[in-house]
Amino acid sequence: MSENIIQKELIKQLADLLKENNLSEIEWSKGDLKIKVGKNITYNSSNNLYSEKLHNENSQIEVSASKDNKDNAIISPMVGTAYLAPEPGGKNFVEIGDSIKEGQQILIIEAMKTMNPIVSNKNGKIIQILVKDGSPVEFGESLVIVE
Asked: Which CATH class is domain 70-146?
């Protein structure tokens, strides 16, 4: 992140916009720098992910800036709610460090009360899971990073 310095004023402005407009998340990007501000969003950290927690009137906001590596990411094909396990309290489909094969189910996205299995489009090893169980996801959002 040495080439992309996070500007705290920009992050504060995004957090204020989030609150003023009663949004669950807001995203800003310029070039390969992306800043996403969301309420109660948790991201796994790695070398290419920066996290900072802001506190705003008893609500915790986590701000994340990352250079997405789209070539190694498995991308959400839809908007919905991500689930990492087949049932509440169940064993996750995949964990960090697992080797996966093309076609292997990695999670579920619920959209319009339909459970949609999300499968890997590549072989490799899971090095990062970018979504939290039960969290909302957007179309085109990176779900996991595969090495």
From this structure: mainly beta
